[in-house]
Specification:
The chain is mainly beta. 15% of the residues lie in helices and 40% in strands. It folds into four domains: 102 residues, Nucleic acid-binding proteins (OB fold (Dihydrolipoamide Acetyltransferase, E2P)), CATH 2.40.50; 71 residues, OB fold (Dihydrolipoamide Acetyltransferase, E2P) (Beta Barrel); 74 residues, Nucleic acid-binding proteins (OB fold (Dihydrolipoamide Acetyltransferase, E2P)), CATH 2.40.50.140; 79 residues, OB fold (Dihydrolipoamide Acetyltransferase, E2P) (Beta Barrel). A hairpin with a 3-residue loop joins strand 11 and strand 12. Belongs to the bacterial ribosomal protein bS1 family.
Length: 366
């Protein structure tokens, strides 16, 4: 508090006439923090009787609080004692000192921000807007910039969704430059710390063979990354289904909830392998009963080789029709008599669960 304000801690009624004259002869300076009492207010403006000043002060709504308020009645009350900074002296057309409580709050906020920076504590800022490269928030009137890369752990496509939200952040940079203070903060730092705690707990409880609920986070050509209890595990394309899967996106979507089985884990290297098909019935189980030798069934031609054609009987079960079993005529290539995707009638020559093989014949039913 300024020295002149310290001189008026005692009640003015206790001062001598000379004390009062000396007090009021001292000029009130721009930037001075001064005490006063609210004597009148409406929705947009308050009048303040100032201690040690020859004129009353005036505070506009926008200078009363760094927060968003529609009425001064939400911020001040008649009779309330306040401290404010003088931002304009009385002029010919306005005999009031123009005051700002916001500027006092901004100074106090900077103290809080520096303390948080030094002690690695977090602050809660109100996000005002999305700008190029990040978000702008305010803490008690102080502008705080959060770079886009520090908003979430992953890339954010639309920063506008954070407008108006409260965000807990860590201060990562304070820079004094040309009379202004640049403050940079990070939400990512806090999220990363929380993620590490969650992951540590998850790894302690993971067990091979465990069935667990997860959420599809990312899709690649070779598989899907599924988040289970805060940890991303790999669901390889070969573990999605017993049937042939061209690419994971043919079966899964980002955001899908899936139940998976942990088929392997390495706690030291933090590697987690998951499976969907391990929870499904193996289509080769009791294959001899489902497709007994001598029976006739329908299948779909799925691929050719030099020695024959593979025909899908059901997802995960492909039978081989050897080139010698495609026709009574001589066949040089399966494509001479079949088309990929074609549905054909075949005869089961042999089926084996142990060898995962089904032998088929087209010529046996010609």
């Amino acid at each position: 508090m300024m020295e002149e304000n310290n001189n008026v801690e005692k009640n003015e009624s206790e001062m001598s006439m000379q004390d009062l004259m000396d007090l009021y002869e001292k000029p009130v300076r721009i930037g001075q923090i001064i005490k006063g009492k609210v004597i009148q207010l409406d929705e947009k403006e308050a009048i303040v009787a100032l201690v040690g000043a020859s004129h009353d002060g005036k505070i506009a709504l926008e200078e009363a609080s760094a927060g968003s308020s529609d009425s001064l009645a939400e911020v001040l009350q008649v009779g309330q004692e306040i401290e404010a900074k003088v931002i304009r002296r009385p002029q010919e057309n306005d005999s009031f000192f123009i005051l700002s409580m916001v500027e006092v709050q901004r100074e106090e906020a900077l103290v809080d921000i520096r303390k948080a920076f030094e002690s690695n504590e977090t602050l809660t800022v109100k996000i005002k807007e999305a700008v190029k490269g990040g978000l702008v928030g305010f803490y008690m009137g102080q502008r705080v910039f959060i770079p886009a890369s520090h908003v979430e752990l992953n890339t954010v496509k639309d920063l506008n969704v954070y407008q108006g939200q409260d965000m807990e952040v860590s201060v990562i940079e304070i820079e004094e430059r040309r009379g202004t203070t640049r403050i940079v903060a990070s939400r990512r730092k806090k999220l990363q710390a929380e993620k590490e705690v969650v992951e540590s707990s998850a790894w302690e409880n993971f067990e091979e063979g465990q069935v667990i609920e997860g959420r599809v986070e990312r899709l690649t050509d070779f598989g899907a990354f599924v988040n289970v209890n805060g940890v991303d595990g790999l669901l390889h394309v070969s573990e999605i289904s017993f049937g042939k899967v061209g690419k994971p996106s043919d079966v899964l979507k980002i955001g899908d909830s899936v139940k998976v089985k942990i088929i392997s884990l390495d706690k030291e290297k933090k590697r987690l392998s998951l499976s969907l098909k391990a929870l499904a019935e193996n289509p080769w189980t009791n294959i001899e009963e489902k497709y007994p030798a001598g029976s006739i069934t329908l299948g779909k031609v799925v691929r050719f080789t030099d020695f024959g054609a593979f025909i899908e009987l059901e997802p995960g079960v492909d039978g081989l029709a050897h080139i010698s079993q495609l026709s009574h005529k001589r066949v040089e290539s399966p494509s001479e008599v079949l088309k990929i995707g074609e549905t054909v009638k075949v005869k089961i020559l042999d089926s084996s669960e142990a060898n995962k093989k089904v032998s088929l014949s087209l010529k046996a039913i010609e």
